[in-house]
Amino acid sequence: MNDEERKIVISKVSEYRQNESGEFHRVPVSPVNRWITIAILIPVVALMVVLGIFFFAAFLALLAVAVVVVGIRFWWLRRKIENAMQQPDDINRQAEADHTVIIEDAQIIEETEVHRTEQKKH
Asked: What are the residues whose beta carbons fall under 8 Å from the beta carbon of 25, sequence distance 6 or more?
């Protein structure tokens, strides 16, 4: 086998092709092919834009819902903490009220006097 048979020539579809001398030259593209390409790309780009707007709107909606949920959770925790901080004062007031006993009706049953005398004298 000679070198020519061993070579694999890959031709790339593009606007440029290589000639025998190794230089690139521009291959003319027909106007029909250009218009067909544009006609295909316009709906594809429009569809991609619409899908992008849709997914961006969906993402924004989910983000808004998440922000509201987190905000409600923080509000709930703050409210719970404020209530917990106010309750010990109420409990202390109730405890003081429970320990204070007011006796309105009392009867003295027996009264005694204690006389102390000094027993030890030195």
From this structure: 16, 17, 19
Closest of 28, 8, 26 to residue 17, by C-alpha: 26
Q: Summarize pLDDT for 10-67 with one digit per residue, the tens.
A: 444 445 555 666 666 666 778 888 899 999 999 999 999 999 999 999 999 999 999 9
Q: What is the SS3 string spanning the chain?
A: CCHHHHCCCCCCCCCEEECCCCCEEECCCCHHHHHHHHHHHHHHHHHHHHHHHHHHHHHHHHHHHHHHHHHHHHHHHHHHHHHHHHHHHHHHHHHHHHHCCCCCCCCCCCCCCCCCCCCCCC
> Under a CB-based contact definition with an 8 Å cutoff, are residues 27 and 12 in contact?
no
CA atoms within 13 A on the CB side of 12: 8
